[in-house]
Amino acid sequence: MRFVTRLVAGGSVAAFFFFSWVIMMLWNSIVADHLRVFPALSYLQACGLWFLLILLFSWAGVGAAWGLGRAWRRAREREEHRHDIETKIKRELARWAGAEETIDWEELGKKLEQKIKEKFREWLKEG
User: Fold this and answer.
1) Which of 11, 20, 67, 107 could link 62 by a cystine bridge, Cβ 3.0 to 4.6 Å?
2) How many angstroms separate the CA atoms of 8 and 2, rounded?
């Protein structure tokens, strides 16, 4: 996979012709043979279609090298953001339950259960 990524990210001429062949094979087997929607493509037509797709997606900012890099960076940032949110939630729940911030989630769950039961007992005594 790393080889293919480097090939595409580097903008290699060989990658262009390889993926043109892949597009031709997929188009001819799926669209032309099975679906019978459009006629089969020649290799040069597949090259033209691939070139057109590259132009269209490059204007949209979905280029191979930059698009993959941004996608991975965004995924990593989302994961870090999720971790930050999880840490904040755990810290506040631990504070409310009267436990340490470094407590395990299972122990925190038990502490929260005890705290909620205590609050319900207090509420029922008042009512």
Assistant:
1) 67
2) 10
Distance CA 124, CA 127 (A): 5
Rounded CA separation 91/82 (Å) = 14
Report which of 100, 90, 98 is spatially closest to residue 114, judged by C-alpha positions. 98
Contact 91, 101 (CB under 8 A): yes
Q: In whole angstroms, what is the distance from residue 26 CA to residue 46 CA?
A: 10
DSSP-derived letter for residue 104 is -
SS3 category, 14 = helix
CA torsion sign, 65 to 71 to 76 to 80?
positive
CA 124 to chain centroid: 47
d(CA 50, CA 41): 12
